[in-house]
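HUMAN: Ready with one sample?

ASSISTANT:
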Amino acid sequence: MKSFNKFSRNQTFDFWNFLTIISTFIIILPLLYIVVNIFTKTSNNFYHIINNLLFDYIKNTFILSLFSSLFSAIIGYTLAYFTVFYDFRYRKLFDILFILPLAIPTYIAGYVYGELFSFTGLFKGKIDIMNIYGGIFIFSIFLAPYVYIISKSYLSKISSNIIENAKILGKNDLHIFLNVLLPMSRIALVSSVSLVTLEIINAYGVVKYFGINTFSIGIFRTWFSLGDSNSAIKLAAFLMFTTFIVLSLEKNFRKHKNYSYINSKIKSIKRKKLSKSHEFIITIFSLLYIIIGFIFPIIQLVYFSMLTYKMMLNYETFLLIFKTFILTAISSLITLIIALIISNNARLSKNKFSGILARISSIGYSIPGAVIAIGVLMLFITIDNFFDTYFSMSFIVLILAYIIRFLGVGYNTINTSFLKIGLKFHESARTLGKSKIYTFFKIDFPMIKSSIFSAYILIFIEIIKELPLTLILRPFNFDTLSTITKKYVEDEMIYHSGIPSLIIVFICFLGIIYFNILNKNRRN
């Protein structure tokens, strides 16, 4: 260890900064490839898309995003408001149950509800759900927990003095909700709705199954059906710029809307006791959301699994689970390590350049998976053609795409933890002559290890659920749980999708519950 410390202290360059620059360059290169190739020669296919399909792509993506985000906001914020401000029966249990729909990927939810409302399903085709209205329903229900989590965190930090002052002025709960809490929560709502919107823009499985022509569908169709990479890149670039516009609007809104409590003492909120009738209404509303968003899909998946378990529980299925788990675990670990390097460098460096690198490297989560997949694949095809290699058919391509897409998830979680511990202990160790590397492993790492594990869980969940990116970049004749689920559905073998879907949901369920426990332990 002494020799290691001596070597680290005598370094002639900043190790963390060097790794950050290399990582950021590798991450940003595929996205730059898309930008550069916008200006390549336009094919006849692209003119056909502009004249006949582009309007539908824009219209459907806009309608789906607008109404799904609106209904997600209404559902998620209402549930958060109930949980924070009212004391009702089973509130603590509902607090956990409200986040469980996140364990069910939207494409699995779409398959389940598509079957439930089919002519052979439970509701016997009474409602046609296989359209844009059905897509809005799926996204609204299963993405509402994003709004719930962010809104609940924000509302729980509001000082009760504000509520009490409004009541002294004779205002009732409805007036306080509409004229006090909602305006104050605009930042939280815009942030969470932006996240929901980005998830909808990225979606592929639901819109493909429901027959909704969105940008993701257009990219896949241009790439696979027409075999036109140049047109696919142009569509991908258009979609990437659209997401940047969404992010810019969200950031601009937050910049001009800021609320603080510097003039009032922050006092924790005391939950209001409800009358039996009001408690009954809130309980029914909460139960209805849990039934639609979690219980119905689980029952349906269990039913699928019971019909096919004799055929599905075999060596091939166990091998598929093992391969998916190993790929996800390795990709998550590499992503986590890079997130640690970039986040640690950003907090230790005294220049703006490191902060810019950190922001650039974490933008991948804001970019649809199909866009990242095309940028990575085309970059490696160019490398293969130049060096006569076969990287584009290897797992390197898929893992790199996972890193680009989900690095922001790990970075944000770890960076938040770094901000909480500050630099006091780190600088004390440095004044004693310890190197940055030694100080990180001996001082910083033990203090944030729970956050590191939380970040790993989040990345793992996101990767195992990912569909569009995996579909494009997986090596030949290689499937994951998500791609095999889609394959069974498209081959009209939806019952066979039960077991792989249930495994994905179960893993996500365990991850979400454990993540929730870790967060509560950190707060306590």
